[in-house]
């Protein structure tokens, strides 16, 4: 059974280890995760998914201020646990949080050719905006996607 909870500073060593295994090009550092976790409850929201008390996925988002576009900073599921709805659950939680912060939309960057993530994002209504050349590293581009929230009158 998968359990979901808020990420804490104590999770950073494990999350960084997973980050390095999943994102071999330009993984986030311990310092980057510490900075993100320090802003949880203010402008950041980070979650982990656990199986038998082992972290198998994590995700995080940011909304700087009400009325600003939110940003999915990271979403990662270890290969053995993909295809089980964990990424979908984490993305749902992040989008709900972002919309609750008063953001009119949410954006994300994804490595070009990420054939597992792109259908997930599109199923949530994300649309292609443009490509950022060499965003992750020389020759490693990012696809920028955006989802607008429906504004009720």
From TrEMBL:
Residues 2-150 form the N-acetyltransferase domain. It holds the Pfam family Acetyltransf_1. One of its GO terms (molecular function) is N-acetyltransferase activity. Keywords: Acyltransferase, Transferase. The keyword Methyltransferase does not apply. PROSITE patterns: GNAT. InterPro entries: AcTrfase_RimI/Ard1, Acyl_CoA_acyltransferase, Bact_Acetyltransf, GNAT_dom. This is Unannotated protein. It comes from freshwater metagenome.
């Amino acid at each position: 059974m998968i359990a979901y909870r808020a990420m804490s500073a104590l999770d950073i060593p494990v999350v960084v280890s997973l980050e390095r295994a999943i994102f071999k090009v330009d993984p986030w550092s311990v310092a980057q995760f510490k900075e993100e976790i320090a802003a949880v409850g203010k402008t950041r929201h980070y979650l982990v998914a656990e199986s038998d008390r082992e972290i198998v996925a994590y995700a995080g988002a940011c909304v700087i201020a009400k009325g600003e576009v939110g940003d999915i900073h990271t979403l990662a599921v270890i290969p053995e646990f993909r295809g089980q709805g964990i990424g979908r659950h984490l993305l749902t939680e992040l989008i709900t949080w972002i919309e609750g912060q008063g953001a009119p939309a949410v954006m994300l960057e994804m490595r070009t050719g990420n054939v597992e993530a792109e259908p997930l994002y599109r199923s949530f209504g994300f649309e292609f905006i443009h490509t950022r050349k060499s965003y992750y590293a020389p020759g490693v581009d990012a696809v920028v996607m955006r989802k607008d929230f429906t504004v009720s009158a």
